[in-house]
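Today's session is about reading a structure prediction critically. Students often jump straight to the picture, but the first step is always the sequence itself: look for stretches that repeat, for charged clusters, for runs of hydrophobic residues. Only then move on to the predicted structure, which in these notes is written as discrete structure tokens rather than atom positions. Here is the chain we will use throughout the hour.
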Amino acid sequence: MAKMSELDFEVPSWEQIYRMLLSLAEKIKANGFKPDVIVGVCRGGWPPARVISDLLENAELANVKAEFYLGVGETKGEPVITQPVSTSVRGKNVLVVDEVADTGKSLRLVKEHLIERGASQVKVATIYYKPWSIIIPDYYEKETSLWIVFPWEIKETIRKLVEKCKREGKPFSEEKRKLVEAGLDAELIERFLHEMTGESEVEN
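Below is the predicted structure for this chain, in token form.
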């Protein structure tokens, strides 16, 4: 896991995410895996799980929550299941969907949880895969070492970056520059900064 000073960002658009999920769904179909239920991992796995549900024409959608991350580039030692899977998976083929396999610990925990609940087969699909993940998803679209800022977590990412910069006594300007270079809209960053601080720039 990279330290914040070493973080570089990837900022995929909604359209790019959708196209990757379309390709992901095609891989799942080509593999012949037909899940009885799709389980989205809260919270980041919800948006891709909903799209995959649509693309696979499978309305059996459930959720599970494994809490792990504290902030950008920070994690707890081990993830924990804080919301068990929301439907019965006993005897079913399950497709777990999340946005990224980073450490892989939360996905491994979720998979173990579903097997303990009686799932007959569990496969994992993610949009991104990090090379240091302890598990390789059965299906994924892109390998990256960058910190991904998904469209559904932009404000949260900025808030956590601002908080971390303040704790470490570092200016936010460098992180802002890297975010903009990665494709995040500068006006959007300014809008969220203003909401958080009442100012357009965050000082040291």
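Discussion point for the tutorial: The mean pLDDT is 91.
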